[in-house]
Design goal:
By secondary structure, the chain is an alpha/beta fold. Helix content is 45%, strand content 11%. It has an 11-stranded mixed β-sheet, sandwiched between helices. Strands 3-16 form a two-stranded antiparallel ribbon. The longest helix has 26 residues. The two termini are 13 Å apart.
Length: 632
C-alpha cells in the first residue's frame, strides 16, 4: 500500500478508526467486569454463580490477550499488507465533505449528541446501579419505530426505550435541519444531508455494547462467547482492511461460482475474453458479447447456476462471450478511458473474426454500458457502426445530470482525497466498496457491526455478498477522469466535448438499436438518470423498468418468480410519463429481452466448429473463468 495512503489514514481518519478501537476496548472492559461479577447481577437481577464467573474470567483473558496482541502488532507496524481501509474508513467521505460545506449544523449535531449521550448514560447508569423499576412502555405506545430497535429487549426496560426513542428523535432533528439549511447550493445541501445521515447512523445506540440490550442479554446467555467470537471477527476485519459480509470459505470460483463451462479464447494486458460452451444443438447466428463493469468482478452475471444470467443465455441458444477485466495494479498506472474503449472494440473484432460473423450483439453493464455508448459513437463516426447489431444497457448512465447519491462524492475535496489514496497509480477497490456500502450504511455497515462484532454471529453463505466483497482495483487516471468529466461535468452528452482513441464522441450519431434497462429502486444508477439515455441516441430505443435495484433488478432469473417489470412507451417525454402509461408484468424481464433480441436477428446455425471453444484445432488459453477474475 502506498505510503501516502497510510499517512492519510494515520491523520484524517483516526477519529473514525477510534470507533472500532473503542468497540474492542469495550469488549475487553465489559468482560473484565463480568469476570468480577459486577455487571451480570445488575443486568439480570440475579447474582452470577462461581462457575459462571469462572467462565467469564476465562473468556475475558482470551479477549484481552487477543486485543493486546493486535494493538501491539499495530503499534509496532507489523501488520503485513495492512492498509488504511479498515471498516471505519468510509466515514472519511463525510469528513472530506465537511471541508466543502458549512460546518455549523454538523458541529451542532455533534454537541447535541455529546450532551444527549451524557443524559442517556445517566439514565442507563441509574438502571445498572439498581435504581427503582417502572413499567416498560408498550410497543404501540412508542411514538417512533425503527427495525433496528424491533427486538423486545429495547422495550423490556424503560431505560432502553427512552434511549432509542431519544436517539430516533435526535436523528430526525439532525437530518431535518440539514435539509433546511439555507444559503448553500442544492448539491451542497444534498452533501450535508448525506454527511448528517452518516453521522446519526454511526451514533445509533445499537452500535455500542453497553447501550444495546440485545447484546447485553446475549453476552450473559453465552457467558461472553459472543464477544470472544466478535473480537476475532473485528480483528480479522481490521487486519484485512474490509468489512466482512459473508463466509469466505463457502464459495470457490469455477466450482460453485462462475462455474458455467467455457474457455478463455483471447487475452490482453487489460482483459481476458471468455467464450462459453453451447448447451443447445443450434445457436443464434449473431453472438453476444457482455461487457461487465471493471469496478466489480464479472461473475455477478454468473453466480450460482440458478441465478446465472450467462448460463441462462447459453441455454437459450446464444453464443455468449464475456470480458473479464484485470484488477488494476501499478503496471496500469497510465490506463485511461481510451484503453477501455479500444478494448471493447478489440473484443468485438475478435469475436467477429473468430466466428466469421459481420456483427455482434453487445451488453454493457453500469460503467461498461457508459463506455459502450462511447464505443458505439466512435464506431459510428468511423462508419463501422454495423459491427454491432444491437446494444443492451444494464443500469448504465450516459447523462449524469441526475446521477443520484454518488454525486455526493464528486467535489474538489473528494477528488483531492481520492488522488492522495492513489499515489501508486491505482485506487484500492476497498475504497470503492466502502463508498457503495456507505450509500446504505444502516444495511451494509452498521448491521454487520452489530451482528458480526457484538452478537458474534456466524457469517452467512450468500453468493451475492461474496461477490460484493470481492473487490477490484481501478486505474487512478481513468477513475479521476471518469469522475471529473462524466459525473461532475457531464461532458459525454455534449457532442465533441470528449474524444477517445483520436475520435470525437457524439452520442446523437448512435443509430444502433438499443435496449435500456433500469432498476426502479437503483440508488447507484437512478432510473431517472438511466432514462435520459433515451433522449440522446438517434436509433430505435426500447426502455424497460425492472423492479428492485442495481443488482437484484438485473440478476432476476425467471425461476425465482420475484419482482416485476414495466414496459411502455419508450418515446415518452419523461420517466414519469413512461411509468404513468406502463404495463406491469410479474417476474423476470429476461424472457422479454430475449424476444427483443430475436427481433433483431432470429437466424440460427449449428453449434459446431469454433462455436464450441476448445474443440479440435481450436487453440485456447485456459478454462473459464480464467486467471484475471481471481487476481486480487
Amino acid at each position: 500500500m502506498a505510503k501516502d495512503a497510510n499517512d492519510f489514514f494515520k491523520g484524517g481518519s483516526e477519529p473514525f478508526r477510534a470507533f472500532f478501537d473503542m468497540q474492542g476496548e469495550a469488549m475487553r472492559e465489559m468482560m473484565g467486569q463480568l469476570a468480577q461479577g459486577k455487571f451480570g447481577t445488575k443486568f439480570t437481577g440475579a447474582a452470577l454463580d462461581p462457575g459462571d464467573m469462572a467462565e467469564f474470567a476465562n473468556v475475558a483473558r482470551e479477549i484481552q490477550a487477543m486485543w493486546f496482541k493486535f494493538m501491539a502488532q499495530r503499534s509496532q507496524g507489523n501488520e503485513a499488507n495492512t492498509n488504511p481501509f479498515d471498516p471505519a474508513q468510509w466515514l472519511t467521505l463525510a469528513q472530506g465533505m465537511a471541508k466543502q460545506i458549512p460546518t455549523d449544523p454538523i458541529d451542532t449535531a455533534q454537541r447535541l449528541a455529546k450532551d444527549s449521550m451524557e443524559i442517556w448514560q445517566g439514565v442507563l447508569g441509574g438502571f445498572l446501579g439498581g435504581g427503582s423499576k417502572i413499567e416498560a412502555p408498550d410497543a404501540d405506545a412508542l411514538p417512533r419505530k425503527d427495525r433496528r430497535f424491533a427486538a423486545e429487549e429495547w422495550r423490556a426496560h424503560p431505560a432502553f426505550a427512552l434511549l432509542h426513542q431519544t436517539y430516533l428523535m435526535m436523528a430526525e432533528y439532525f437530518v431535518g435541519a440539514a435539509k433546511q439549511v439555507e444559503g448553500i447550493a442544492p448539491e451542497k445541501r444534498k452533501q450535508l444531508e448525506f454527511a448528517t445521515t452518516a453521522l446519526v447512523d454511526a451514533m445509533s445506540p445499537d452500535n455500542f455494547i453497553l447501550t444495546n440490550p440485545v447484546v447485553l442479554k446475549r453476552t450473559i446467555e453465552t457467558k461472553g462467547q459472543n464477544l470472544l467470537k466478535g473480537m476475532q471477527h473485528l480483528i480479522n476485519d481490521l487486519k484485512k482492511g474490509q468489512l466482512t459480509h459473508t463466509d469466505a470459505e463457502a464459495f470457490e470460483l469455477g466450482v460453485n461460482l462462475a462455474a458455467t463451462p467455457g474457455k478463455v479464447v483471447h487475452e490482453t494486458p487489460l482483459y481476458q475474453l471468455v467464450q462459453y460452451t453451447p448447451s443447445t444443438d443450434e445457436v443464434f447466428a449473431t453472438p453476444l458479447i457482455i461487457f461487465p463493469p471493471w469496478i466489480n468482478r464479472f461473475y455477478i452475471l454468473d453466480l450460482t447456476a440458478k441465478k446465472s444470467f450467462i448460463k441462462w443465455a447459453v441455454d437459450q441458444g446464444i453464443s455468449v462471450f464475456v470480458v473479464s477485466w484485470k484488477s488494476a495494479d501499478a503496471s496500469m498506472k497510465d490506463v485511461i478511458w481510451d484503453d477501455y474503449i479500444r478494448a471493447q472494440i478489440d473484443a468485438i473484432d475478435t469475436v467477429r473474426e473468430r466466428l466469421k460473423v459481420p456483427s455482434v450483439h453487445a451488453i454493457g453493464y453500469c460503467v461498461a454500458g457508459t463506455t459502450l455508448a462511447a464505443t458505439l459513437a466512435i464506431l459510428a463516426k468511423r462508419n463501422e457502426a454495423d459491427k454491432v447489431k444491437s446494444a443492451t444497457f444494464f443500469t448504465a448512465q450516459v447523462d449524469f445530470e441526475k446521477a443520484g447519491e454518488l454525486k455526493h462524492f464528486i467535489d474538489d475535496g473528494q477528488l483531492e482525497m481520492i488522488s492522495n489514496l492513489s499515489s501508486e497509480g491505482y485506487l484500492d477497490g476497498r475504497y470503492l466498496a466502502a463508498t457503495f456500502n456507505s450509500l446504505r450504511g444502516k444495511d451494509l455497515i452498521w448491521n454487520y457491526v452489530v451482528n458480526n462484532y457484538l452478537l458474534g454471529e456466524d457469517y452467512p453463505a450468500f453468493d451475492l455478498l461474496h461477490w460484493n466483497g470481492d473487490v477490484t482495483n481501478l486505474p487512478s487516471k481513468w477513475h479521476a477522469d471518469y469522475l471529473r468529466d462524466l459525473y461532475r461535468d457531464n461532458k459525454l452528452v455534449v457532442p465533441g466535448a470528449l474524444s477517445a482513441d483520436g475520435t470525437a464522441i457524439d452520442l446523437s450519431q448512435v443509430n444502433t438499436p438499443a435496449f435500456i434497462q433500469a432498476g426502479r429502486e437503483d440508488h447507484i444508477a437512478p432510473a431517472e438518470s438511466v432514462w435520459k439515455a433515451t433522449e440522446h441516441f438517434k436509433g430505435p430505443v426500447t426502455f424497460l423498468l425492472a423492479g428492485s435495484g442495481h443488482i437484484a433488478g438485473v440478476v432476476n432469473p425467471p425461476s425465482a418468480n420475484k419482482y416485476q417489470y414495466w414496459t411502455g412507451e419508450s418515446t415518452a417525454a419523461s420517466l414519469k410519463d413512461f411509468v404513468d402509461g406502463a404495463t406491469e408484468h410479474p417476474g423476470s424481464w429476461w424472457p422479454h429481452w430475449l424476444e427483443w433480441l430475436e427481433q433483431q436477428d432470429s437466424e440460427k446455425v449449428p453449434a459446431k466448429g469454433k462455436r464450441k471453444p476448445g474443440g479440435k484445432g481450436d487453440k485456447v488459453i485456459e478454462d473459464a473463468p480464467g486467471r484475471y477474475v481471481k487476481t486480487r
